[in-house]
Design a protein that fits this description.
This protein is an alpha/beta fold. It folds into 2 domains: about 1-225, Spore Coat Polysaccharide Biosynthesis Protein SpsA, Chain A; about 255-335, UDP N-Acetylglucosamine Acyltransferase, domain 1, CATH 2.160.10.10. The chain has helices spanning about 35-45, 60-65, 80-90, 110-125, 180-185, 200-210, 230-250; strands at about 5-10, 30, 30-35, 50-55, 70-75, 100-105, 130-135, 145, 150-155, 170-180, 215-220, 255, 265, 270, 275, 280-285, 285-290, 295, 300, 305, 310, 315, 320, 325, 330-335. The chain has a 7-stranded mixed β-sheet with strand order 5-4-1-6-10-7-11, sandwiched between helices. A 5-stranded parallel β-sheet has the order 12-15-18-21-24, covered by helices on one side. A 5-stranded parallel β-sheet has the order 13-16-19-22-25. A hairpin with a 2-residue loop joins strand 2 and strand 3 (about 30-35). The protein is elongated, with a radius of gyration of 23 Å. The model has no long low-confidence stretch (mean pLDDT about 95).
C-alpha cells in the first residue's frame, strides 16, 4: 500500500485558546514546530506524499516549514474537518488510493498504532479505518456509536443525547479512507448540526448506509493522543517528549546526572559513555561523540563535538570541536 498512501494534515486553525498571533501548529516544542512531529510520524509509516491544510496566517506556516518536503492546500474559511478535506479534493487532480487524515496539533501520535491501522486497512479493506480510545472520562470527545459490535456513527459530544454521552469509546480524529469512497462521498456532507460545520465524522454514517465496512483501531496509550489547545497542553506535551528523549539517550549509554535540569532537543545525537551534567542545554542539530563530559551550565546549538571532549560552563554555537578538546569555562565558541 505504501506507494499509494498519502497523508493529509489538518493545520488551518488559529488556536484561540493559545492566546497568540502565531498559528497553533507552528508553536515550538523543544525547538521545532509541533506539526513537524506529525509530519515525521506520517512519513515514518510510509506516506509518500504529505499535504497540509492551512488557513490562518498560511504564509507564516509555509515559511516555518521550508524544507519539510510537504505540499499545501488553503482553507480560507474554517468550516469544519469535512470542509478541509473538500478543499483538498478540489485542488488535486486524482484522489490517492488511500488517504490518511490526521490533526496537526497531535505531536505525540503513535507510529506503531498508525502502522497497525494501515495493516488493518490493508487486510480488511474497509471504506474507513479510524483510531479510537476507551476513556474513563471522555469529556468533549466525539463518541463511537456501535450496534451489534459494529461502528455505525460518530457523534460529536455537543450533538450527543444523554445516553450517547455515557459511551466511553471516543474518536481520535485519525482516519484512513479508501480513496474511491472518499471521492464519491466527500461532497455529500452537509452542515446540519449545531456548529453549522461540515463534519468528516459524518462519512461514517454514509458508509454504513451504503453497507460499506467501517473498522476501528484502538489506541492503548492515552498520552499519545494528547492534542494541544492551550499553553498548559504545550508544556505537558513538551515535558513528555523531553522525558522520552532523555530516557532513550540513557538507554543508549549516555549518563545524564540530573535529567530534570537538562534540556536536549529532538535532533541531537550523543554517543555512549558521554556524561551530561545539570544546566546543560543542547538544541538544534547536534552530534556529540563518545567519552565527553558536558556541563554543568553549558549551551550547545547546531554543533559537532568530537570524542573525549570536556565542555564546562561554555557556549558553543554552530561550531565543530575536534577530538579531545578542552573548552574552558566562560568560553564562547562560534562557527
Amino acid at each position: 500500500m505504501t506507494a499509494k498512501l498519502q497523508a493529509l494534515i489538518l493545520a488551518a486553525g488559529k488556536g484561540t485558546r493559545m492566546k497568540s498571533e502565531l498559528p497553533k501548529v507552528v508553536h515550538p516544542i523543544l525547538g521545532k514546530p509541533m506539526v513537524a512531529y506529525v509530519i515525521e510520524a506520517v512519513k515514518a509509516v510510509g506516506c509518500d506524499k504529505v499535504t497540509l491544510i492551512i488557513g490562518y496566517k498560511s504564509e507564516l506556516v509555509r515559511n516555518m516549514l521550508t524544507g519539510a518536503d510537504v505540499s499545501f492546500v488553503e482553507q480560507p474559511q474554517q468550516m469544519g474537518t469535512g470542509h478541509a478535506v473538500q478543499c483538498f479534493a478540489k485542488e488535486i487532480a486524482t484522489m490517492p488510493e488511500h488517504l490518511l487524515v490526521v490533526c496537526g496539533d497531535t505531536p505525540l501520535i503513535s507510529t506503531s498504532t498508525l502502522r497497525q491501522m494501515i495493516e488493518m486497512h490493508n487486510s480488511q479493506k474497509p471504506a474507513i479505518t479510524m483510531m479510537t480510545l476507551n476513556m474513563e472520562n471522555p469529556g468533549n470527545y466525539g463518541r463511537i456509536l456501535r450496534k451489534d459490535g459494529k461502528v455505525f456513527a460518530i457523534r460529536e459530544a455537543r450533538d450527543c443525547s444523554a445516553e450517547e454521552l455515557k459511551v466511553k469509546e471516543v474518536n481520535l480524529a485519525v482516519y484512513l479512507f479508501e480513496g474511491q469512497f472518499l471521492k464519491d462521498n466527500i461532497f455529500k456532507l452537509t452542515a446540519s448540526n449545531q456548529q453549522k460545520e461540515y463534519y468528516l465524522t459524518d462519512l461514517v454514517e454514509l458508509a454504513v448506509q451504503k453497507g460499506l465496512p467501517v473498522v476501528s483501531c484502538i489506541e492503548k496509550d492515552e498520552s499519545s493522543t494528547l492534542g494541544i489547545n492551550s499553553r498548559q497542553h504545550l508544556a505537558d506535551v513538551s515535558a513528555i517528549l523531553q522525558q522520552q528523549i532523555l530516557d532513550q539517550l540513557m538507554s543508549d549509554g549516555v549518563t545524564i546526572t540530573s535529567p530534570q535540569n537538562t534540556f536536549i532537543g529532538p535532533d541531537v545525537n550523543i554517543a555512549p559513555d558521554t556524561v551530561i551534567h545539570p544546566g546543560t542545554m543542547i538544541s538544534g542539530r547536534c552530534s556529540i561523540g563518545r567519552d565527553c563530559v558536558v556541563g554543568p551550565n553549558t549551551h550547545i546549538s547546531d554543533s559537532t563535538i568530537g570524542n573525549g571532549c570536556n565542555l564546562e560552563a561554555c557556549i558553543i554555537k554552530g561550531a565543530s570541536i575536534t577530538d579531545n578538546s578542552n573548552i574552558e569555562p566562560f568560553s564562547l565558541v562560534e562557527g
